[in-house]
Write a structure and sequence with these properties.
The structure is a homodimer of 397-residue chains. By secondary structure, chain A is α+β, with helices and mostly antiparallel strands. Chain A is 32% helix and 27% strand. Chains A and B meet through helix 2, helix 9, helix 10, strand 12 and helix 12 of A and helix 2, helix 9, helix 10, strand 12 and helix 12 of B.
Chain lengths: 397, 397
């Protein structure tokens, strides 16, 4: 990861800023309205929640993205504007319109995102009043990264450079944690900017590719919140176009930025004290491998065992077995850290104290070889702590 | 529920008993090997885990059930004999053989079940030594109900009578909690006996029907442990045959017994302090309704909100929305206790203190009308507490 900082304003031509609008109450981090702005039109693409109960800002942003172009993103935290009915859609449109008016652009050039409590009408007047106070600058990336936080304990920022043709293009982003990424993913928001020149259709494809093994590997397909949003804006300010022959390199670095951000989300999972990476190999297909890896990372039994450094490794295989992936326990192998606990169907009677030591580390590697094919995937999870319960048992109040 | 007690020995011709075999270590409840025996051959049927990583005792019992007849069930707690490879199957067969030898019956007349830590070889010598000490009696139902417990805080026993033709037949059962029924269901074991005379094929059908909206509504299809087992033995000791015309009545009472037991499992969920019932109506199909109801009962966000009496009711609709059921938020309604919080797509701005009061009750009713059809289902869940984490972070040790 670059040490340059700046996240969404790392790419040239972007500014950002935030203000306190009084939507996010009872939290220590009070910035709660953010703007990300390009100085020129951008190609834009998005990936949204697969929840069929989709929040108003996602509906509005999807509509605005039909042109393949955006110039700004407006975000609020503290209220998700979800399950808020027709009024919710009017409020999301009003948020876009207020940002557009402020910036002197069209309302359909603005993407909208919200995160926070659901089922409560958005206090749109407060959002608009807060928005009026935002002054986007290159230095405003930090405020923007804080304004989108809910139960996150720290802002999440990443950026990388990639050499394309004769020059260097920049990619940067910010995101907010899916506090309870596992298994409910209470709203992951991620915003990525680049000064590369890319047409919208190609951008959409590349974003989908980059999300699949990063953000979507810390959430679970079909197991998402009402508001999950990943947006990318490409403004071409570098003057460098990403040609078809450059795409693989560009998408590789875009994927790295997304992985950096996704890992920060896991590490900052609500109440999380440890992160674990699950690699599934030898599956019948990549899709099967993904299914197994994600089920292991979302198993409450695996998550609590890791939390307590309980060497109950059998839970790992049991979780894979209920994932829907093809699992033949007689051919599977499981390795925890560097300890083979189960090999080709036979338990290896591992030293439980050694397994306990592996589970005591802040980063834990779990490798599952299903032994039935060549499919492979990775997923990341965090432990489940009593602190998670405390946070989520008292979210509204 | 009858107040007669006796569970598995309520039906005539059955005895039960248990002993301490030293398999279950570090728990206050030390009985850990149980026998349930009929004085004559029985028709028998079973329902097993859908996890593709299936434990050895389930494999062995399924094989023994191919004849449609059993005469005894042997159970141990403390070790699940799961993910234990070929040795595990030999151990499960040895358990059946030891019980058979003790009782003077054939090994394939014995059903086997195990629950406890997975991935650790079964200490078969201890199990056999414990088994030798068991003396099945009519009074032994209580010991048997305790010997199958793991993290359960109390034994679970139910029984009912049903009038068939000129007489009364009896149905009784015991079960052990699926500690972490949500979402991983760490082994639910349930054993039901009846003195009705029923042929095996009919018994199998009736058991499947009874399980669908009871035990399977507190677990989740495809989301089960390696060992889940529900067995029924029908020994005909009442002299009363269940004719085709009696089946509906019999299955109704059998379902009641299963529901009694399933509700005890939820109420005794690990760390649970409250139980909630989710009714989904107006779904496109019963299957869709089941999917939505079960997803709501397994949502960590819903479970923690209920634990903390946090009136964050939007999480209920969000969980239904990611269930895979067809949900149109514009047509859905949600009622919590007697408070309509969301009606036909519009939030009702309910009094949050009133919602908080509903969520503070020990029993909570949640009603979701999807407004798109006639499908209906119920499911039961329990809250997620910090205590759940404590229990499961330190299970092995």
């Amino acid at each position: 990861m670059s040490d340059r900082g700046r996240g969404v304003t790392f790419a040239r031509g972007f500014t950002a800023g935030a203000a306190m609008a009084g939507v996010k109450t009872g939290r220590s981090e009070r910035l709660d309205v953010a703007l990300i702005v390009s100085d020129r039109p951008c190609a834009a693409a998005g990936v949204f929640t697969q929840n069929t109960v989709i929040a108003a800002p996602c509906l509005v942003t999807r509509k605005h993205l039909q042109s393949g172009a955006l110039r700004a993103i407006v975000v609020n935290s503290g209220n998700a504007n979800a399950t808020t009915g027709a009024q919710g859609e009017r409020d999301a449109e009003a948020m876009a319109a207020a940002a557009a008016e402020k910036l002197g652009i069209a309302a359909n050039e603005v993407g909208v995102a919200s995160t926070g409590v659901i089922g409560v009408p958005l206090p749109i007047d407060r959002v608009k009043a807060g928005l009026a106070k935002v002054e986007p600058t290159v230095a405003g990336w930090d405020d923007a990264s804080r304004a989108i936080m809910t139960t996150d304990t720290k802002p999440k920022v990443a950026e990388r450079e990639v050499a394309i043709g004769q020059g260097i293009v920049r990619i940067g982003g910010i995101c907010k944690g899916a506090g309870m990424i596992h298994p409910d993913m209470a709203t992951m928001l991620a915003f990525v900017t680049t000064d590369a020149k890319i047409e919208a259709a190609a951008l959409r494809e590349m974003l989908t590719d980059a999300a699949r093994d990063t953000f979507n590997a810390v959430s679970v397909d079909g197991d998402t919140s009402t508001n999950d949003t990943l947006l990318i804006l490409a403004n071409g300010a570098s003057g460098i176009a990403v040609e078809p022959s450059d795409r693989e390199r560009f998408v590789g670095v875009l994927t790295q930025v997304c992985e950096d951000l996704a890992r920060m989300i896991v590490a900052d999972g609500e109440g999380a004290t440890k992160v674990f990476e699950v690699v599934v190999r030898g599956a019948r297909s990549d899709e099967d491998a993904r299914r197994a890896a994600r089920t292991v990372t979302t198993s409450n039994l695996v998550k609590t065992a890791i939390h307590g450094a309980d060497p109950n490794w059998g839970r790992i295989l049991a979780a894979a077995g209920r994932s829907g992936a093809f699992v033949d326990a007689g051919r599977a192998s499981v390795t925890v850290g560097d300890i083979v606990v189960f090999k080709a169907g036979t338990p290896q009677k591992p030293d439980l104290d050694a397994v306990r030591r592996v589970f005591s580390e802040p980063q834990i590697a779990i490798d599952i070889d299903l032994g039935v094919g060549n499919g492979k995937a990775r997923a990341w999870g965090c432990d489940l702590s009593a602190e998670y319960v405390h946070i989520n048992a008292d979210y509204t109040t």
